[in-house]
Design a protein that fits this description.
5 strands; 12% helix; five-stranded mixed β-sheet; 83 residues
Length: 83
């Protein structure tokens, strides 16, 4: 199953991959030079391993209208912390 994947600190589009193994998708029309990223997982075991390997907190969302793939959002460990 193919998932759109992104990191909260980078947003849905970014020039760098949000995690190891992410494959670059199409360039975002509104943000030249930034891309959406996907991961392909072959089943529940792959999904569980992906979630464990990318630690912190993760959110999974069903596709909204106009979206082709479900979404995995990686919440950064430092999200919301004051410096």
């Amino acid at each position: 199953m193919k998932f759109l994947v992104y990191r909260t600190s980078q947003g849905v589009t970014s020039p760098q991959p949000p995690c190891p193994g992410a494959a670059r998708g199409d360039e975002a029309p509104a943000w030249p030079g930034e891309y959406v990223w996907h991961v392909e997982l072959n089943g529940l075991d792959d999904l569980v391993k992906f979630l464990a390997d990318n630690g912190g907190a993760l959110g999974m969302f069903t596709p909204e209208e106009g979206e082709e793939h479900p979404v995995i959002e990686i919440f950064d460990d430092d999200e919301g912390e004051e410096e």
